[in-house]
Amino acid sequence: MAYNKLQLKAINDYYLRLYRTNKKLKDKEKQLLDVNHRLISTIVEGLKKYKSTEKDYYSSVQQIISVTAFNTVENMDKFTWVLFALAGGLLLFVFLHDLSVLQK
Questions:
Q1: Cα 85–87–91 angle (5° rounding)?
Q2: What is the rounded CA–CA span in Å between residue 21 and residue 76?
Q3: What does DSSP assign to residue 76?
Protein backbone atom coordinates (compact mmCIF):
# COMPACT_ATOMS: atom_id res chain seq x y z
CA MET A 1 0.00 0.00 0.00
CA ALA A 2 2.81 2.41 0.86
CA TYR A 3 4.44 1.51 -2.42
CA ASN A 4 1.29 2.52 -4.33
CA LYS A 5 1.10 5.80 -2.43
CA LEU A 6 4.73 6.57 -3.31
CA GLN A 7 4.06 5.77 -6.96
CA LEU A 8 0.92 7.89 -6.91
CA LYS A 9 2.80 10.79 -5.30
CA ALA A 10 5.62 10.51 -7.88
CA ILE A 11 3.11 10.47 -10.71
CA ASN A 12 1.26 13.47 -9.24
CA ASP A 13 4.54 15.37 -8.80
CA TYR A 14 5.54 14.58 -12.40
CA TYR A 15 2.24 15.83 -13.80
CA LEU A 16 2.32 18.90 -11.54
CA ARG A 17 5.79 19.82 -12.88
CA LEU A 18 4.55 19.14 -16.40
CA TYR A 19 1.50 21.37 -15.83
CA ARG A 20 3.63 24.21 -14.38
CA THR A 21 6.10 23.98 -17.26
CA ASN A 22 3.23 24.02 -19.75
CA LYS A 23 1.69 27.07 -18.02
CA LYS A 24 5.02 28.94 -18.15
CA LEU A 25 5.34 28.09 -21.83
CA LYS A 26 1.81 29.34 -22.54
CA ASP A 27 2.52 32.56 -20.64
CA LYS A 28 5.66 33.09 -22.73
CA GLU A 29 3.69 32.38 -25.91
CA LYS A 30 1.08 34.97 -24.89
CA GLN A 31 3.81 37.52 -24.23
CA LEU A 32 5.38 36.77 -27.61
CA LEU A 33 2.01 37.11 -29.35
CA ASP A 34 1.45 40.47 -27.62
CA VAL A 35 4.89 41.69 -28.73
CA ASN A 36 4.20 40.52 -32.30
CA HIS A 37 0.82 42.27 -32.27
CA ARG A 38 2.35 45.56 -31.11
CA LEU A 39 5.13 45.26 -33.72
CA ILE A 40 2.68 44.58 -36.55
CA SER A 41 0.41 47.43 -35.40
CA THR A 42 3.38 49.81 -35.35
CA ILE A 43 4.43 48.75 -38.85
CA VAL A 44 0.87 49.13 -40.21
CA GLU A 45 0.52 52.62 -38.68
CA GLY A 46 3.90 53.62 -40.11
CA LEU A 47 2.89 52.42 -43.57
CA LYS A 48 -0.41 54.31 -43.34
CA LYS A 49 1.42 57.52 -42.41
CA TYR A 50 3.92 56.96 -45.23
CA LYS A 51 1.10 56.39 -47.73
CA SER A 52 -0.67 59.56 -46.61
CA THR A 53 2.54 61.60 -46.77
CA GLU A 54 3.40 60.19 -50.21
CA LYS A 55 -0.11 60.95 -51.49
CA ASP A 56 0.11 64.55 -50.21
CA TYR A 57 3.57 64.95 -51.78
CA TYR A 58 2.49 63.72 -55.21
CA SER A 59 -0.65 65.85 -55.05
CA SER A 60 1.41 68.97 -54.33
CA VAL A 61 3.93 68.10 -57.07
CA GLN A 62 1.10 67.58 -59.57
CA GLN A 63 -0.45 70.90 -58.60
CA ILE A 64 2.90 72.70 -58.96
CA ILE A 65 3.47 71.14 -62.38
CA SER A 66 0.02 72.05 -63.66
CA VAL A 67 0.34 75.63 -62.41
CA THR A 68 3.83 75.95 -63.92
CA ALA A 69 2.73 74.52 -67.28
CA PHE A 70 -0.33 76.78 -67.35
CA ASN A 71 1.79 79.83 -66.51
CA THR A 72 4.29 78.93 -69.21
CA VAL A 73 1.57 78.68 -71.86
CA GLU A 74 -0.10 81.81 -70.55
CA ASN A 75 3.13 83.83 -70.72
CA MET A 76 3.86 83.06 -74.37
CA ASP A 77 3.66 86.14 -76.51
CA LYS A 78 2.40 86.39 -80.10
CA PHE A 79 5.87 86.04 -81.60
CA THR A 80 6.34 82.67 -79.88
CA TRP A 81 3.00 81.45 -81.26
CA VAL A 82 4.07 82.56 -84.77
CA LEU A 83 7.34 80.61 -84.36
CA PHE A 84 5.41 77.51 -83.27
CA ALA A 85 3.10 77.85 -86.27
CA LEU A 86 6.08 78.18 -88.64
CA ALA A 87 7.85 75.20 -87.05
CA GLY A 88 4.67 73.12 -87.32
CA GLY A 89 4.25 74.15 -90.96
CA LEU A 90 7.86 73.29 -91.73
CA LEU A 91 7.46 69.91 -90.04
CA LEU A 92 4.28 69.22 -92.00
CA PHE A 93 6.04 70.21 -95.24
CA VAL A 94 8.94 67.83 -94.53
CA PHE A 95 6.61 64.92 -93.76
CA LEU A 96 4.50 65.52 -96.85
CA HIS A 97 7.61 65.89 -99.02
CA ASP A 98 9.06 62.62 -97.67
CA LEU A 99 5.71 60.92 -98.21
CA SER A 100 5.57 62.06 -101.83
CA VAL A 101 9.16 60.92 -102.42
CA LEU A 102 8.42 57.48 -100.95
CA GLN A 103 5.33 57.04 -103.15
CA LYS A 104 7.31 57.61 -106.35
A1: 115
A2: 82
A3: -
Domain boundaries, the chain: 2-76
Give me the DSSP letters along 23-66: HHHHHHHHHHHHHHHHHHHHHHHHHHHHHHHHHHHHHHHHHHHH
User: What pLDDT, on a 0 to 100 scale, did the predictor assign at position 73?
Assistant: 66
State if pTM tops 0.70: no
Q: φ, ψ for residue 75 (rounded to 5)? A: -85, 0
- Asked if residue 67 has pLDDT above 80, the reply is no
Query: One-letter amino acid identity for 4?
Result: N
Residue 55 has pLDDT above 90, yes or no: yes
Task: Give the N- to C-terminal CA distance of the chain in Å, as an integer.
Answer: 121
Q: 4 versus 42: which is more confidently predicted?
A: 42
